[in-house]
Amino acid sequence: MADLSINLAGIKSPNPFWVASAPPANTAYQCHRAFEAGWGGVVWKTIGEPIVNVSSRYSSIDINGTRMVGLNNIELITDRSPETNFREIKECKERWPDHAVIASLMTDTRENWHDYMKRSADCGADGVELNFGCPHGMCERGMGSAVGQNPDVIETIVGWVMEVAEIPVIVKLTPNITSINHSARAASRAGANAISLINTINSITQVDLDRMCPEPYVAGQSTHGGYCGPAVKPIALNMVQECAADPDVNIPISGIGGISNWKDAAEFIALGSTSVQVCTAIMHYGFRIVEDMTEGLNDYLDSAGMASVNDLVGRAVQSVQRWENLDLSYKRIAAIDYDKCIGCNLCYIACEDGAHQAIALVDPDEKGVDLGPGRLPGKPVPEIKEKECVGCNLCALVCPVDQCITMVDVETGKERMSWSDYQDKLASGEMDPIPAHP
Amino acid sequence: MPIRPILDAETAARNMAEIEPKYSPQEAVVEANRCLFCFDAPCIKACPTGIDIPAFIKKITTNNLTGSARTILESNILGGSCARVCPTSVLCEGACVMLDRDQQPIKIGRLQRYATDHVFENDLQVLHAPEQKSGKRVALIGGGPASMGCAAELAQLGHEAVIFEKKPQAGGLNTYGIAYYKLTPEMSLDEVELIKQLGVEFRTGVEVGKDISVSELEKEFDAVFVGVGLGHTYRLGIPGEDLPEVQEALAFIEEFHINPLHEVAVGKRVAVIGCGNTAIDAVTQAKRLGAEQAVIIYRRGPTDMPAYVYEYDLAKRDGAEFIFHAVPVEVLEEDGHVSGLKLARSSVGADGKLTVDESDTFEMPFDMVIKALGQEKMTDMLNQLMPDLELNKNGTVKTDTNGQTNIPHVFAGGDGANGGAEVVNAVGEGKKAARGIHRLFTQEDVEGPIQWTRMGVVGDKPLGSGLNNPVRVAEDAKAFV
Question: What ipTM goes with this model?
Fold first, then answer.
């Protein structure tokens, strides 16, 4: 059994799985249920001056019958009073002293930030998370992503907060920017103890073509909502890695964005997250999903010979490099397992029309290939043109059968050479330009 | 003519190969992703061991197969064999909400097999008995599914369990009495090993009442579980019944569980009397072992047969024939061997009463007759072993819902107590009895493992999982078999 416990900038929790600041983290009742189910921490729904919400708040996209591949929302921060929220956090900490309860905060003036910081520490929260990410509603009032989109403002406000901080401070960043590094560096410069990312992405999920208005629908109108769920994972992983690899950031990361299972979580951790936060998957299935997360992560760590989840943190960060450092001499090509091929020939048409014309259709008898189930006698089978194949992966991506098309390494006999090396060699006259593809 | 083996080894093995092979990883993930992960899922209530089915399926989608198997085996130690032999269309799959969306129910049985195979193939130990033992010891009479379900639970609760089985191998009908293409004896014995890993002791080849007395058991153990199952097939009571080619269905099935398939003698023309699920097993196995003709003879009509419809379909696909409304009145003989059956026509009245017209008879040539009329209760044996044990009128052991009998330290479950049901019922009853025994020892209740709010709440009380309150789906609800 691997050790799943973590310590993120002084915030300890029995496992890296935290409920993200969102509807599932709205009340003490939900917090108790989350901890009973096995979550390691809860980041409270953002506390601020009570707001008023609209009716109809969420919208989603379904892909090929799978529900909620992406979810967006136009709900604001908590609609409960700060007194109620801080009282309930205290109650949760008393009942769950070994679990992490983090107060998410959003306010405006220096005095108000000082006041909320003091009340967070007083109620026994293990840390705070500054919400600089919400991309709807609050940003129009100069808060949320309006802060996170301006590194100078991030630095100023984090500075105010750090003046009085008695407990660790996490800064939650918005992805609605050009470069996440600038925001993360600003938080780090101002003394934040950690960052969390990503908050939701500006989005419109769909338009109702009868009413000519997007969902979520509010009396004939809608607004830009914050997008999250499994569909945003690649964007989140990218930003987490960028921050983890940046020496000017250099503070722990709590990863957020489309995490639905242990494998997603392990990927965020491998790219530099110490804890991970989950919302959409809970909104879909409830707190019980954490059972598979802890069990699956545990079994993975055991099978990989890692004694602790901390051994996994950041393991894959350095494998992500600038393009110019990639090896131009490396080559892989596609290989087809004809015993598995079902004869759909999607690989052929994808390559022919969509990529590099490196798959031919040939007579199965000439090829000496048996027909698979459902294939008509004489129906052509795909064949990789090995000389033409650039190893792009597309055919393997579209193939509907697992392990039917695999990408295999080819020995080129060439020494490693990156684009940078190539430019150096050209400049020094050591080699001639590589001829252009015909 | 005496009967002989018909097929060579290779053909026999091919014919008897599993009808539903294991899912490939991709098949499993695609099927698992169809599951909606219902909250208070009806499949849990329809499983007599209360497996958290949506949880184990969700874990397959993330390739957490070890965790998936753990979820299954925590609830049902024989989850591997139940995955193969459960009549899922009237249990979990019959309860699936997909049916209400006019879609195929999730293939829970096959997914369960996929997950549990992972444990057996990789020799993983996913369950553990506590190191701290209670010091209490329980003797279990009979080594079938009920005792195994009971012993595995006792071991996980920290009690010592010793199973007494008169046959050379444990596993009961799972090892000796299920159609080969559904469950092989090797799979059953793998499960025996799994239970041994929990510290349960198996004393095989030991018959209680002969090799060791009940009073000796009571001296050595703190409680006794009676999991004796059922006895011989009911007799036909007609002339010719004792000819050598007249066999009991379970004895016929047992033969190819203890002998190589190609050494099992089978008739060229086989009659199977009865139309329950064991009769179906016998007729399909005879056909697959090379019988030219295999015929089910049943005194009532197709709508009355106790066999599941999918079993009936399977037998028809195997080429078995069915003669309804006929009752054997004599096994015909030629030179000391079976030569055929004399049958009388029967009819079922509007009141359901059976009438046999002995004046209207016909003969059919057979060289083998297999009796599958249901099994006798173990009344005599139980009366002899434990004279004080209270039995029901039908000869089964009388128990309360926790398996406790009128003798406080004696518990019972499985076919011997329920009169004959599925493997999964036996495991569930064994498990409940183990919890009853635990309560007897410690005055503590064992709950779970599922959150009670997921068990359907009526008022402020949970309806319970299938372990507490098994719900069975009506046969005609299985639209997609």
Answer: 0.85
Q: Are residues A313 and A358 in the same domain?
A: no
In a domain, A1, yes or no: no
Q: What is residue B469's predicted lDDT score, i.e. its pLDDT?
A: 74
| 8 Å CB contact of A295 and B67 | yes
Same domain, B112 and B41: yes
Number of domains in chain A: 2
pLDDT of residue B480: 37
Per the domain annotation, does A124 fall within a domain? Answer: yes
Residues A51 and A183 in one domain: yes
Q: Is B438 on the interface with A (CB under 8 A)?
A: no
* One domain for residues A310 and A342: no
Catalytic residue among A134, A279, A341, A351: A134
Domain of B156 in residue numbering reads as 137-231+376-446
What are residue B410's phi and psi, to 5 degrees? -115, 125
Domain range for A56 is 6-318
pLDDT at B463: 67
Task: For chain A, list residues with pLDDT below 70.
Answer: 371-375
pLDDT of residue B453: 59
| Interface with A, mutate which of B27, B62, B122 (most A CBs under 10 A) | B62
Q: What's the mean pLDDT in B122-126?
A: 93
Give the number of domains in chain B: 3
CATH number of B411's domain: 3.50.50.60
